[in-house]
Amino acid sequence: MIRIEQVSKTFGQGKNSVVALAPLDQFIGEGEFIAIVGPSGCGKSTLLRIVAGLETATEGRITLGTSQLKRPVGFVFQDAVLLPWKTVAGNIRFPLDTSGVPRKVGDRKVEELVELVGLQGFENALPKQLSGGMKQRTAIARALADDPAILLMDEPFSAVDLMTREGLNDELLRIWQATGKTILLVTHSVEEAAYLGTKVMVMSARPGRLRKTYDVALPSPRTEETKTSADYLDLVGELKHMMRDADR
Amino acid sequence: MFLRSLLGLAGFVALWGAAVPVFNIPSYLLPGPIEVFDRICFLFERAELAGHIQVTVLEIFWGFLLGTFTGIVSAIVFARIPVLLRIFTPLILLLQTVPKIAIAPLLLLWLGLGLAPKVVLVAIVSYFPVMTAMLSGLRYIDKSFTDLAGVLRLTPWQRFWHVELPSALPGLFAGATVASTLAMTAAVIGELMGANKGMGFMLATGQENADTATVIGMVILLAFLGWAFFSMLEYLRKRMEDRFS
């Protein structure tokens, strides 16, 4: 559960201040998959970073309904951010090693995660030997390592090609269903947002603000057929319209 | 790979050996490889060459250790407290820009003819490349790594040990490799200027006696020493990389 109350962010002070995010309210329930979509400069990444604790909100409050106080969230960055000197297994277990999890418990957990993200056989590969998609799989496994209730993803698949991206989206849905995490995913692709989310938050720029939150009524699980269904196409059209409208 | 590089070396020695009789070069100008080899053996047996090598190795070892250690520690301190860097930069630069040969006589005057002045000279020349390499490694950490450390709520110590140090390691070893060649030079210079032991002392003696074979022998031994030094650093680098993987 994530409760966002009147959260805003202003960079700079006085005359030179820039509003990155106008006051925003949103409630996100346990196990929901929220897609945040919007143009550059709409504050979507800023919002995610505030939820992650990487930035502080200028005003407002965020409540995370989780008992993990040390690491309440897992975070998947846009460009994987794997430690280049560590292997796939070493990167995945990094959060465990730095929170004092016994080696044996960690080994078992890594094995599980490698299987979950489909990286069997690459445990000892170094990041430079991996494709973009495999790097992101590793990053997802790392974000899930110490089992946070909330997974935050900042345009996680924007650096991989379209084919890989569609495959990764399906994988992500499978992982979401298998783990029951609450996911917040930032994207600039309306199609991706509609396909993945149980809710879609549409944001707009100058100043960054939330325009509308859509409930997505598409049937679960989502498949290739979802993408050709009338409901999906209607939703994509409406989201696009809202984004265009918001730009004016 | 190793055999092929050995082949190049063997070719060079063969050419050298052939050139001396073919061009009729007098032995006081360029003795042949066999003569040099004999001289090295003779020096080992009669002139305690092993002891001289040991002295030079010790000077380089302690000086390099002292220089790199101070370099690494001060870089860590400077990265944490940038004000100190601004205060010390002029002093460090001055010490770096002055020719080391100019410092050597001063050190000999202060510290005598023994090990100490050479160790200090080696430490001074090793310090700068190591400190700057380590410092830039620590200061220009990828910003996304800082975010990762933030998300994982790493403690300052964890951040240093798991992220900053391994990030800085390749640069640190590049700096140490530069420092290693400077360290060899500094030790020999120190010995040339005033010593009663060491390979530089042997070089100076060889020069005084117009003993070309000894001089060439020392040069070859120093080259081997440098190669061993370099290999040791490479080994250390691989071990450190494994440690963090």
From TrEMBL, chain A:
PROSITE patterns: ABC_TRANSPORTER_2. Residues 2-230 form the ABC transporter domain. It comes from the Bacteria. SUPFAM superfamilies: P-loop containing nucleoside triphosphate hydrolases (SSF52540). Keywords: ATP-binding, Nucleotide-binding, Transport. The keyword Nucleotide-binding applies. PANTHER family: ALIPHATIC SULFONATES IMPORT ATP-BINDING PROTEIN SSUB, TAURINE IMPORT ATP-BINDING PROTEIN-RELATED. Belongs to the ABC transporter superfamily. This is NitT/TauT family transport system ATP-binding protein. It comes from Roseibium marinum.
UniProtKB/TrEMBL annotation, chain B:
PANTHER family: ABC TRANSPORTER PERMEASE PROTEIN HI_0355-RELATED (PTHR30151:SF20), ALKANE SULFONATE ABC TRANSPORTER-RELATED, MEMBRANE SUBUNIT (PTHR30151). Belongs to the binding-protein-dependent transport system permease family. GO terms for biological process: transmembrane transport. Keywords: Cell membrane, Membrane, Transmembrane, Transmembrane helix, Transport. One of its GO terms (cellular component) is plasma membrane. It is found in: Cell membrane. The keyword Cell membrane applies. Gene3D superfamilies: MetI-like. The keyword Aminoacyl-tRNA synthetase does not apply. It is a multi-pass membrane protein. It holds the Pfam family BPD_transp_1. The chain crosses the membrane at residues 60-79, 91-113, 119-138, 168-193, 213-236. Residues 53-231 form the ABC transmembrane type-1 domain. InterPro entries: MetI-like, MetI-like_sf. This is NitT/TauT family transport system permease protein.
